[in-house]
Amino acid sequence: MSFDEKKWSRRNFLKTAGAAGAGSVLTALGGNYPARAADNPELSTVPQRPFGKSGINVSILSLGGMFNTGSNQLLLKQAVNWGVTYWDTADCYGWSGSEKGIGKYLSRFPEDRKKIFLVTKSDDRDPAGLSRLLARSLERMNTDYVDLYFVHGISGIDELNNRTRAWAEKAKADGKIRLFGFSTHSNMEECLLGAARLGWIDGIMMTYNYRLMHTTEMRRAVESCARAGIGLTAMKTQGGGSVITGSEAELKLAGRFVQKGFSDAQAKLMAVWENRQIASICSQMPNLTILAANTAAALNRTSLAAVDRMLLQQHAVETASAYCAGCTRICETAVGGRVPVGDVLRCLMYSRSYGDRDYAAGCFREIPQEIRNKMPGLDYSLAEARCPRKVPIGRLMREAVKELA
Questions:
Q1: Which tens digits make up the pLDDT trace of 86-143?
Q2: Residue 118: how many CB atoms within 10 A of its CB?
Q3: 103 in the Ramachandran plot: left (φ > 0), alpha (ψ -120 to 50) or beta?
Q4: What's the CATH superfamily of 10-314?
Q5: Which candidate, 49, 50, 102, places its Cα nearest to that of 79?
């Protein structure tokens, strides 16, 4: 059933989401909400969109598995019941626990495998490494194939080459993957434009949210991929996290959305879904409360008003310095490549916005100790001067060392 074919009234959305947003969703659904979801598929099934030119439809909401979501088997079952059947994970997520949790689920419910659009990723770029990690992922997840396999976290299209293409074509021919692509947190616009020129990329997952989606560069990159038939999945769609309660501007913005029957987090998802070139949004949903809130947002048929979109854009401009846009080619060059600025800022985001300090600290420790030792004493003034968003890079680098060491 397509996004446009399903009809789900604003009144029903208000019943589900409630005026208080995510916190009241489970109450609105009732204490036995897993059973009710199964009994009312028209009320609870997330719509789908075409994934590029693949001929495959995917749910517009994707279950992100970064924080070992796979360990919550009830969550996985409820995701299927509600039609959240695009599942995203990676070899490294949850220190392998995410893939193992999915494998446990598929061993219990093998009939659900055909319903699920399963995605995993590899940190390796070398064909031999890709083969080794894919084989391990398939074993962990108890499946013979994945629907989409990503090279994880590229920052430049030159990280892919003809050897990568040959590997992907063979993996497809062997029936181990259906589609191939990459994820990117850095220099997204250049990566998307490069993928469109390559002509053999099936899917991309990229940072994309209300802060980035309206720039000329991002709009041009997304349009190029859409013309090339590449399926696009948006991630990091909250643009830095939930409302900062110490900010009067953010509280006012959130209050407006609550009055209209949804939370600021739901509104940010809805803003991305309004671009039909985006096939799906990947969201970290580690518990049923967040899954239910995001599902309610996906089911909503009320478009954001023009003034809502304007306020989000205005807020993005006013708080630009609080959010890294991933243009690491600028800041990292300015420090002579001595610090992976984008990776450090992403670690801080996991800790401060996602509230998972342990995961953030683990990611931070993957940066070589020698670099971490040098970070507090480096001069970041040139990087700050060149940063188009005026992010206080030096201060954040020093805070990261203190918070995440």
A1: 999 998 776 678 899 999 999 999 999 999 999 999 999 999 999 999 999 999 999 9
A2: 22
A3: alpha
A4: NADP-dependent oxidoreductase domain (3.20.20.100)
A5: 102
Which residues lie closer than 8 Å to 110 by C-beta, 6 or more apart? none
Residue type, 381: S
Question: Angle at CA 282, nearest 5°, toward 276 and 287?
Answer: 135
For residues 207 and 237, the answer to whether their CB atoms sit within 8 Å is: no
336 CB contacts (<8 Å, ≥6 apart)? none
Report the amino acid identity of residue 68: N
List strand residue ranges (DSSP E) for 66-124, in order.
86-88, 117-122
Q: What residues of the chain score a pLDDT lower than 70?
A: 1-44, 66-71, 94-95, 241-251
- Integer CA distances (angstroms), 352 to 23, 28, 293, 343, 355, in order: 20, 29, 21, 14, 5
88-to-13, 346, 348, 380, 389 alpha-carbon distances in Å = 26, 19, 22, 35, 30
What tokens were used for 257? 């959305």
Span between the terminal Cα atoms of the chain, in Å? 48
- Give me the phi and psi of 208, to 5 degrees please: -160, 120
**Dist. CA 303–CA 312, nearest whole Å:** 14
Q: Which of 158, 135, 266, 272 is nearest to 206 (CA)?
A: 272
Please name the amino acid found at residue 266: Q
Q: Which two tokens stand for residue 323?
A: 């959010």
pTM to 2 decimals?
0.85
Q: What pLDDT shows up at residue 248?
A: 66
Report the alpha-carbon distance of residue 294 to residue 302 in Å, rounded.
Answer: 14
Amino acid at 389: R
Q: Domain boundaries in the chain?
A: 10-314, 324-404
- Write down how long the chain is: 405
Q: What is the pLDDT of residue 23?
A: 35
Cβ–Cβ under 8 Å, residues 72 and 286 = yes
Structure tokens at 316: 């993005």
**How many CA within 13 A on the CB side of residue 281?**
30
Q: How far apart are CA 16 and CA 46, in angstroms?
A: 14
Both structure tokens of 208 = 């994309």
